[in-house]
Structure formats: C-alpha cells, structure tokens
Design brief:
With 157 residues, this protein is of the alpha+beta class. The protein has helices spanning 3-12, 32-40, 56-67, 71-74, 80-97, 99-106, 135-148; strands spanning 15-19, 26-30, 78-79, 115-119, 122-129, 151-156.
C-alpha cells in the first residue's frame, strides 16, 4: 500500500502504526476494526491472508524469507492457503490410492505451514515459529510436510 493509503487506513482506524521490536522499523498492523472490515470484503471470502497472524515480527520474518528467494521463485510462492489446499488434495489422492495410509494421517492433527516454494527436489515449506509454539503445533506442521513429502525450514522470531 502507498504511504497515503496507509495514512488513510490509519485515520479510519483500520491499521495502527507500530515500531518493530526486532528491527526498529515502522510497521503497520490491522486493528480489530481492520480485521472485521477485511473479513467482510467479498474479495477475501474463504481466504483471508491478512488475518492469519497478529505478530508483526512473524509477518516481517516471513516477508524476508520470501524476499530472499530469487525472483523466479518469489513469483512461484505458495501461500499458507495454497499449502493447505495441496495437503487436502494429497489427502484425497491417498484416500483413493492407499486407504490405510489415509486413515492413519486423517487421525493426526494437521496445520498448514506459512508457505512454500516448489524446487526441482520438491516442495520446501517455510514456518515462522513464535514463542507460543509447542511440540503439538510443530507436530501439526510435520504432518502436513509428511503428507506432501516436503521439507520444512523453521525460522524463529
């Protein structure tokens, strides 16, 4: 968003200006009013990428990981929602091809990673880990990676 657009959102109470604890940079985050506003937009029906995290440090670190990729890979970035859709599709394939394996994985809790990119060697997933993560949250990410036959690169805020 442009500076003028961010100022307008700030005046409307949709975002608030903050300072990143890690970098000292000026950042903006959605307010509750902003999240409600985005949630009502038809554009984001069923897919609300701006509502997934309240942690500005999380979002900055994820953006840095995407930005560190070569341009051709940045253009092929899979969002958290994309990764979840791939997981769901793979689970449907497993149900048809290997019911016992599908049944095993369907009993495990699963949670999508923050994103990923397809390389020649397969999909590489990225997960930004915050202080509130425990073993159960990590295991949920590992379930998704296992089903997708992917590697996860963890980065801690």
């Amino acid at each position: 968003a442009t500076d003028s657009r961010l100022r307008a959102y700030e005046k409307q109470g949709l975002v608030e200006k903050c300072v990143s604890v890690n970098t000292g940079e000026i950042i903006y985050k959605c307010t509750d009013k902003g999240r409600t506003f985005i949630g009502k937009l038809n554009t984001f029906a069923g897919h609300k990428p701006y509502l997934n995290s309240n942690s500005s440090e999380h979002n900055i670190l994820l953006a840095q990981q995407i930005h560190s990729l070569p341009d051709n890979l940045q253009a092929q970035w899979y969002s958290e929602r994309d990764v979840w859709d791939m997981f769901q599709a793979k689970m449907e394939e497993l149900k048809e091809a290997d019911y016992d394996r599908w049944q095993e994985y369907s009993q495990l809790p699963a949670s999508s990673c923050d994103g990923g990119v397809m390389l020649e060697s397969g999909i590489e997933l990225v997960e930004i880990v915050t202080d509130h993560y425990g073993n159960s949250e990590i295991q949920e990410k590992e379930t998704v990676a296992t089903v997708l036959n992917a590697n996860i690169n963890y980065f801690h805020t």
